[in-house]
Amino acid sequence: MIKKCPIHGVFRGTACTCGEAGSLILDDEQTERLGRFISGALRHFPDDLGLAMNQHGWVDLDVLCDAMRTRYKWANKEKLISIIESDEKKRYEIQGRKIRARYGHSVDVDLDYPDNTLPELYYGASREEVDILLEKGLKPIKQRYVHLSTSKEKALEVAKIHTDDPILILVDAAEAQKNGVRMISATENIVLSEDISPQYLKLIQG
Q: 2-101 belongs to which CATH class?
């Protein structure tokens, strides 16, 4: 659920970090339903909802709210923004009257984030797929970019969503970028990349 603390603003859970119970904005079911709607609208099918997305993934916030209200009469802009502001993974961002997803797109976008500056990045994989990845490289599957993690811990956390026994691949980001592979920093934990050849990959846990 999402609630609002009079001191610290919106938060997820039963109580704010300060102990304040807060006032309810969205219950668990509403949070999940709106979260799925926002993800679909900003990552996968903006055209189906009448959203004009520019090349960098931005859509008009008010137009998104209008599309949302046609499906969920109980929803409003405050509830939508509460989902964005309380999201610990920072999946979305708002600038003025525009909103976009930071990562996870299946539609063709050209995100304009700064270039990655970390020399090494990480990718978590299952044991069943790791040999193929090391042989053929990393390529986006059903997404616009390859999603890399900035730490071993985050890579394992992501991989554990899909496998109980993840292993890590080290990505030589510095060398890859030096040779023309574009990598951009979407959040402090996620770097988005174009295709990465096997020569920049190394198994570091197995």
A: mainly alpha
